[in-house]
């Protein structure tokens, strides 16, 4: 039986935080020895791109090519290696100044390793800065490797993407998330429930496991069709109730953010610092994560609502049971027909309306108005 080398085993350990992305991890492991100058990791947060960027960066600055156990690897995975820098946007989008800051960092000499790794997040929001970003990528210093993280690749960034080796991180399958949770000691039934509500996001699943209100929120969204009774007052009250529940869903993430700031403050105090270096950037990132979490929570709820209407659609299109009666010499009538065609069409429309509302959240729609408008239109369908 062949024996794995010591180098093979740690390389896997570098990606322990990446779940269900075997193809992406395999591609990155193959790139350890001869990396190109720029990589583009494409996938929604929680699919593993950030964790993969840390593992990949550790391998690139490791003197052993990715041993996973040396000081360089440990510091990179902990976010403290001086030759691995993450560049966060300073505003609602990556602007020209952010792109130029990346360019200036690229000219810096590595402090310890043979190369440095610069990670830039939210590159899908760099449309206006694309020319400056492109210039940096087209004139790369030999000792710098860029790792760009993007939710997707909009048309304005196609040229930037063409200068990078692209690694895809699709949503993690719910079966992989459930198996990962079970491996962490979560009850299988609860793990499956959380995995289905995580939307392919492992980080979201990790926090939802500790959220005692998660199952109740799912039940609340499923109850919407039966609670819409044609009264306008119900529409407003239901929207407020759902948004209040969404506010409560932020508690686990906010608790984690508070712990992160407390740890940074403790480290700063131990180093004799008066305050946390870069605290403003950390707080802004946390606020962005909370806004994203809130949007994902609402989209999850709307997904549950859409499934509720799909279940009603399935019942409406189910054929009528064949008659079991025998009249004289006549055999039973086995002909079938749609049970409730009008209800089926109404349910199809309801699913389309819910999907439209979920897409509206991506355009920063006003949440209360969006839900109230949706519920009024659903009420009119009378399903």
Would you write up a description of this structure?
- By secondary structure, the chain is α/β, with parallel strands linked by helices.
- The protein folds into 2 domains: 8-168, Rossmann fold (3-Layer(aba) Sandwich); 210-318 and 338-383, no CATH class.
- The protein is built from 17 helices and 5 strands.
- A 5-stranded parallel sheet has the order 2-3-4-1-5, with helices on both faces.
- Mean pLDDT is 88; it is low at 1-10 and 332-337.
In short:
The protein is built from 17 helices and 5 strands. It is of the alpha/beta class and 383 residues long.
Report the strand count. Answer: 5
CATH topology of the largest domain: Rossmann fold
The largest sheet has its strands arranged as 2-3-4-1-5
The structural domain count equals: 2
The CATH class of the largest domain:
Alpha Beta
Biggest sheet character: 5 strands, parallel
Secondary structure: helix percent: 55-70%
What is the structural class?
Answer: alpha/beta
What is the typical, i.e. mean, pLDDT?
88
Strand content: 5-15%
Characteristic terms for this protein:
single chain, 383 residues, alpha/beta, Rossmann fold, five-stranded parallel sheet, 17 helices, elongated, disordered N terminus
Write the topology of this structure:
Layout: H1 8-13, H2 22-30, E1 38-42, H3 49-61, H4 71-78, E2 84-87, H5 96-106, E3 116-120, H6 130-138, E4 144-150, H7 158-162, E5 165-168, H8 174-183, H9 188-197, H10 202-208, H11 214-222, H12 224-227, H13 232-249, H14 251-270, H15 279-317, H16 341-361, H17 367-381
Parallel strand pairs: 1-4, 1-5, 2-3, 3-4
Helix pairs in contact: 3-4, 5-6, 8-9, 11-13, 11-15, 13-17, 14-15, 15-16, 16-17
């Amino acid at each position: 039986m062949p024996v794995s080398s010591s180098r093979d085993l740690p390389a896997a350990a570098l990606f322990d935080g990446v779940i269900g992305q075997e193809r992406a991890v395999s591609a990155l492991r193959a790139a350890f020895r001869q990396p190109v100058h720029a990589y583009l990791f494409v996938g929604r947060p929680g699919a593993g791109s950030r964790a993969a960027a840390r593992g990949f960066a550790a391998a690139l600055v490791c003197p052993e090519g990715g041993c996973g156990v040396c000081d360089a690897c440990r510091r990179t995975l902990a976010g403290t290696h001086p030759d691995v820098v993450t560049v966060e946007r300073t505003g609602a989008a990556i602007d020209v100044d952010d792109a130029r800051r990346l360019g200036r960092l690229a000219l810096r000499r590595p402090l310890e390793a043979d190369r440095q790794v610069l990670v830039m997040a939210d590159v899908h929001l760099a449309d206006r800065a694309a020319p400056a970003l492109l210039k940096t990528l087209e004139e790369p210093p030999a000792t710098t490797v860029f790792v760009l993280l993007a939710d997707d690749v909009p048309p304005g960034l196609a040229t930037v993407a063409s200068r990078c080796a692209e690694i895809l991180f699709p949503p993690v399958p719910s079966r992989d998330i459930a198996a990962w949770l079970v491996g962490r000691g979560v009850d299988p039934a609860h793990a499956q429930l959380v995995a289905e509500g995580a939307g392919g996001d492992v980080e979201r699943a990790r926090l939802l496991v500790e959220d005692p209100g998660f199952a109740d929120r799912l039940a609340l969204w499923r109850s919407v069709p039966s609670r819409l009774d044609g009264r306008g007052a119900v529409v407003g009250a239901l929207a407020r109730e759902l948004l209040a529940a969404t506010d409560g869903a932020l508690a686990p993430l906010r608790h984690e953010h508070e712990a992160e700031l407390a740890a940074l403050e403790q480290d700063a105090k131990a180093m004799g610092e008066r305050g946390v270096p870069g605290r403003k950037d950390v707080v802004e990132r946390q606020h962005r994560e909370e806004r994203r979490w809130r949007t994902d929570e609402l989209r999850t709820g709307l997904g549950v609502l859409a499934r509720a209407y799909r279940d009603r659609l399935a019942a409406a299109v189910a054929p009528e049971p064949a008659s079991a009666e025998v009249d004289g010499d006549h055999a039973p009538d086995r002909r079938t027909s749609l049970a409730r065609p009008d209800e089926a069409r109404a349910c199809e429309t309801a699913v389309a309306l819910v999907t439209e509302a979920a897409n509206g959240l991506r355009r920063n729609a006003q949440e209360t108005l969006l839900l109230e408008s949706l519920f009024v239109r659903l009420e009119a369908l009378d399903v």
